Amino acid sequence: MTHSCTGTFARHRLMLAALSLLAAAPLMAQPAPAPDGPALFRAHCASCHGAQGTGSGPMAPALRRVPPDVTLLSQRNGGVFPEARVRRIIDGRDVESHGSRDMPVWGEELKLTGDGAHAPSVGARIDALTRFIASIQQRRAQ
Ligand code: HEC
User: Fold this and answer.
1) How far is the CA of 65 from the centre of ligand 1 (A)?
2) How many CB atoms lie within 10 A of CB 41?
3) In a shared domain, residues 55 and 78
4) Quick one: angle between helices 120-135 and 37-44, nearest 10?
5) Are residues 79 and 22 in the same domain?
6) Could you report the per-residue pLDDT of 9-57, keeping only the tens digit for each?
7) pLDDT at residue number 34
8) Domain range holding 21?
9) Do residue 77 and residue 122 come from a single domain?
10) Which pTM does this prediction carry?
């Protein structure tokens, strides 16, 4: 009697354990760290735009067009950071020297899916990079 009771109890425990594992699975699949804007810039943009964003990366002399100083985007836009435009540029539109939208120079990491929607991780990377570029804007000399 006691024996079959413990047996049921053990099975119950096992099932609970299995269930809690199932419940935890989607959490474990989440990408953990938030994307790092400065690191993304160093990895994908600095080769041309320079480590500080001021336009003289090691690739610059080999390019047909001079990579612009991306710390002057606000100044050149009447003092307002052109956020929407920067996002469009990062997700592969608008700038010829960045390659085509299907094959941007920075590869897949910042790419849109075919239907034009961002994978959530791509959206987060574009956010982080856009925030970083906003943070390095030079203020207009007073
Ligand atoms: C292969 C070199 C190269 C890489 C890598 C590169 N760029 Fe560029 N970028 C350029 C060149 C050259 C231009 C300007 C010429 C043009 O319009 O085609 C430009 C233009 C821009 C502009 C427009 C600036 C303006 O004043 O209008 C922005 C913003 C920009 N890049 C951001 C980025 C970001 C963000 C990254 C990284 C995700 C990046 N670039 C990576 C070469 C590069």
Assistant:
1) 10
2) 20
3) yes
4) 90
5) no
6) 677 776 666 666 666 655 566 655 788 999 999 999 999 999 999 998 9
7) 82
8) 1-30
9) yes
10) 0.76
Regarding whether 130 and 84 lie in a shared domain, the answer is: yes
Contacting residues for 37 by C-beta, under 8 A, at least 6 apart: 128, 129, 130, 131, 132, 133, 135
Return the structure tokens found at 91: 């997700």
Measured from the Cα of 59, ligand 1's closest atom is 2
Q: Whose CA is nearest to atom 42 of ligand 1?
A: 67
Count CB-CB contacts under 10 A for residue 48: 22
| 31 Cα–ligand 1 center, Å | 28
Q: How many domains does the chain have?
A: 2
Q: Is 86 in the pocket of ligand 1 (CB under 6 A)?
A: yes
Ligand 1 within 6 A of CB of 44 = yes
State the Cα angle at 94 between 90 and 95, rounded to 5°: 80
